[in-house]
Write a structure and sequence with these properties.
Strands 3, 6, 7, 8, 9, 16 and 17 form a seven-stranded mixed β-sheet that branches. A six-stranded parallel β-sheet has the order 12-11-10-13-14-15, sandwiched between helices. The radius of gyration is 20 Å and the shape is globular. The mean pLDDT is 94. The chain is built from eight helices and 18 strands. A hairpin with a 2-residue loop joins strand 1 and strand 2. It is an alpha/beta fold.
Amino acid sequence: MTRTASAFWLNESGRGEVRQVTLAEPGPGEVEVRTLHSGVSRGTETLVFRGGVPENQYATMRAPFQEGDFPWPVKYGYLNVGVVEHGQLKGRTVFCLYPHQTRYVVPETSVTVVPDNVPAERAVLAGTVETAVNAVWDAHPLIGDRIAVVGGGMVGSSIAAVIATFPGARVQLVDADPSRQAIADQLGVGFALPDNALDGCDLVFHASATEPGLTTALNLLAPEGRVVELSWYGDRKIAVPLGEFFHSRRLTIRSSQVGVVGRPDRSYGERMALALDLLADDRFDALITGHSAFEDLPQVMPKLADGEIPALCHRIDYGPEKDGHSHVSE
């Protein structure tokens, strides 16, 4: 007998479908997870959706449990929360860097238990909050720093939420979309349009993935200030203003990428566990801006990609399976 599950696959630019995929029996040290919710990380996943991953970044951009190869066909995603139905963690709610799929079998070491005080619906943010934690580790903020976050998307807003309560810090979210004011208010940080942002910053996180955004980030810095760059530009080329005041102010641009842990004394597992602990704070609910059923994902993804559905994180909800189990065929 063959067991199957349903998974979302990208077939070609702008198209996706739900496919039946073979589900292995869990072996020693493995768990079988029934998905409750997954999340669409709009920036990265829509870049993949439109085929914008540069060929020289195919290996770097692979998701941990991706199937297929860029550009298509590919099963891609990394924000998944479910309940363990077979294995040592049976009955526990867990987070896994797994694509959009109704159930799956992975090594037990690939899942992180969701704390009891974190709702499963919010736990889909763990992968992005992990990125924010890493960015803060890379940035080394100091007490009393003047900090801006340029780009109020999912990553930028996650960083603002993590850094909002840093002791003595002045934190401002900067975005060209005035509707992001509401997000900043819910996160408890200031907000400004680029032309009105507070300058003299010691530290700026840049996450807008735009050339004007990076220019704004540099313009906001005080002498000796630093930009931590989190934007993923895919196959686009951008110009960086390294003339004018860049050298005279002794500014720094440094990259931050979640593939490397920003502290040598922490492991990937410890970083993910910390991200989930932080999600006990209900301010993070502001980052989930919509939800849809799994079976609607082929119609929803194009609307997320073209902005018809505005989103930071769009949650995908998985209803009960028709027979309560994975599909079995002869």
